[in-house]
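Dear Dr. K.,

Following up on our conversation at the group meeting, I've run the structure prediction for FAD/NAD(P)-binding domain-containing protein from Oryctes borbonicus. I'm pasting the input sequence below exactly as I used it, so you can double-check it against your construct before we proceed with anything downstream. Let me know if the numbering doesn't match what you have in your notebook.
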Amino acid sequence: MKYSLLHAVPPMGTPSALKTNKDIANDMGFLTVDKLTLQHTKYPNIFGIGDCTDSPNSKTAAAVAAQCKIVYRHMSATLKGKPLTYAYDGYASCPLVTGAGKCILAEFDYSLQPLETFPIRQDRELYIMYLFKKELMPFLYWNLMLKGYWNGPAIFRKMLHLGMSK
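The predicted structure tokens came back this morning:
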């Protein structure tokens, strides 16, 4: 069979410590959380982010960045005995490199509706999105997100859209 790209993906799943704990995980081994608060559905002192949860969002690093802000605020509120007032909207981002110097930055919410950060149409191949993916995203990931300084683009989205609707 002829091909021009081979994408091999190793077997994936939740850690065995979670998968085997039926008290906190569903039948497939994912932590059961409320999709808006990311709080466990049975134990209020447990929160989850990322690939190990059963929330119906796309599992991307961008989703984890957005979830971190919600979980941090909700853990703090829980420790102080306050209500959970923030909601995760399902934000995820998939930079789709479509060719040399071309990328579509797909950003969307739980309902798969566009939730675009930039005030331009992102539904087509753009060189600027390729540069964003190639040059800025690795910096955001390694230097900000992993150190707890990047909680996704929500604040920039609001500024770039002049606080309107998005």
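Two things stood out to me. Strands lie at 92-99, 102-108. The chain has two domains: 17-79, 92-160.

Best regards,
J.T.
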